Amino acid sequence: MKKTTLLLSAIFVLFAVSAASAQVRRQTEAPRRAVIKANVLSPFALTASGFVEYAFAPQLSAQLGAFTTGVSIKDVDFSGYGFTPEVRYYLSETKQAPNGVYVAGYGRILNYKLTVDDEDAGKTYEATYSPVGAGVAAGNQWIFNSGISVDLFLGLGVNGGSLKVKSGTEDDFDLGFLNLVGSGVRIRPGLTVGYSF
Hints:
Layout (H helix, E strand, L loop, with lengths): L1 H27 L5 E6 L7 E11 L2 E14 L2 E15 L9 E19 L4 E7 L2 E12 L4 E13 L2 E5 L17 E12 L1
Antiparallel strand pairs: 1-2, 1-10, 2-3, 3-4, 4-5, 5-6, 5-7, 6-9, 7-8, 8-10
């Protein structure tokens, strides 16, 4: 919970600093190239995630996402963090990145700690799971005149990694909830709200 509070506090501070910076830039009418945003769907999965995107060409941008989570699913206490580097190509010929419809390629670097309390045996089992993966996504980002941004996207990716058991056996840890579609395949939905400057 402390990690979630820390991440949300950092996003708030970055939002306040970017808003002040945007006021200065608006006077010189510099184009908005950077976006700081948070995924508003993440709290439904007991996760906090945020992103920073920067357009380095009229149709290209780079984005870095980070998240932290802590949840219990199917008797497994599950906590961890991850990073998602992404490159986006904006398809519009009339709008410049980071505004409009885009396609993207992304990577995933994840690190989870899993704990299972076996009350019947009076034992606690621990393991770590650090998958890496990659995927593709498509979406649309709207940047309004006020600087507010809304980004709606859907991705499909593949993750792979091995479970490292510290105590217990692999059978004590059910990882099926991590693979929403099939073995190693995950859907990546998102709806972010942020500020562009």
